[in-house]
Amino acid sequence: MAIYLTGDTHGDFRRFLPESFYEQETMTKKDIVLVCGDFGGVWYGDKRDNDGLDFLEQRPFTTAFVPGNHENYDALRTYPLEKWHGGKVRPIRPSVLMLERGQVFELGGKRIFTMGGASSHDIQDGILEPDDPLFLKKFQRLNTQGALFRVNHRSWWKEELPDKEEYEEARSNLDRGGWKVDYIITHCAPTSIQNELLRERSTPDALTDFLEEVCQRCQFKYHFFGHYHSNLVLRQKHVLLYQQILRLK
Ligand SMILES: [Fe+2]
């Protein structure tokens, strides 16, 4: 089983075309490409998502993603939960899977902890409610201003951050394995890494603080994450991925 990793795809899967990702020539559905959040393949929650999802389903590998902040959580939660390699997933297509939060998967003899999600930082001008009587007026005004805003349940979901149960599940799964894994896959970074990356623009939250604790307490080889749209290695173990696709050895 080969495992590859990449960063945010935002619903654009061209990096997986055979001419860009030629390694797929020898891959099978047993091989996995992990996307570190902002998958974006389930965005409209209707048939407009089909082309992208069908393209992935036709690839000779399995795609698995942790959710990011730019995901349609209303649509994602309509896919039922299943068990897969020791953890919970939501199959979107037979070989396109969302990896639930707080899981420890056993893949190819490696233990992989997953904890998707992140705070959106492109919402500083607000989140509009679609049932607000002034919605259209506000939308047009903000749009004309080029403001950074999103619309609840259309382009922003509060579930971008984990809830209490997801943190509890993560802790109990890590407890069970003695806080020892091979790899950690998330969308955002632990607080101290995010601070290093974003400096004064960094706004830590409950998830970055939780990941800080995980990375302090856990024994792990590498932590892979996306969200910050760059390819970079920090403190030897924290690997920020964007469009690059790398193979786990
Ligand atoms: Fe992103």
Commentary on this structure:
It is a single chain. It is globular and about 55 Å long. Strands 4-5-6-3-2-1-15 form a seven-stranded mixed sheet. It has a single domain (3-120, 156-247), classed as Purple Acid Phosphatase, chain A, domain 2 (4-Layer Sandwich). The chain has helices spanning 50-58, 73-76, 135-145, 164-176, 191-198, 206-217; strands spanning 3-6, 32-35, 62-65, 82-84, 87-93, 96-99, 103-107, 110-115, 127-128, 150-151, 183-186, 222-225, 232-234, 238-240, 245-247. With 249 residues, it is of the alpha/beta class. The N and C termini lie close together (11 Å). It is built from six helices and 15 strands. The mean pLDDT is 97. Bound molecules: fe (ii) ion. Fe (ii) ion (FE2) is lined by residues 8, 10, 38, 68, 70, 227, 229.
Q: Helices, strands, pairings?
A:
Elements: E1 3-6, E2 32-35, H1 50-58, E3 62-65, H2 73-76, E4 82-84, E5 87-93, E6 96-99, E7 103-107, E8 110-115, E9 127-128, H3 135-145, E10 150-151, H4 164-176, E11 183-186, H5 191-198, H6 206-217, E12 222-225, E13 232-234, E14 238-240, E15 245-247
Helix pairs in contact: 5-6
Fe (ii) ion binds next to loops.
Brief rundown of the structure:
With 249 residues, the chain is of the alpha/beta class.
Provide the descriptors you would attach to this structure in a database record.
globular; 249 residues; single chain; Purple Acid Phosphatase, chain A, domain 2; six-stranded mixed sheet; alpha/beta; seven-stranded mixed sheet; 6 helices; 23% helix; binds fe (ii) ion
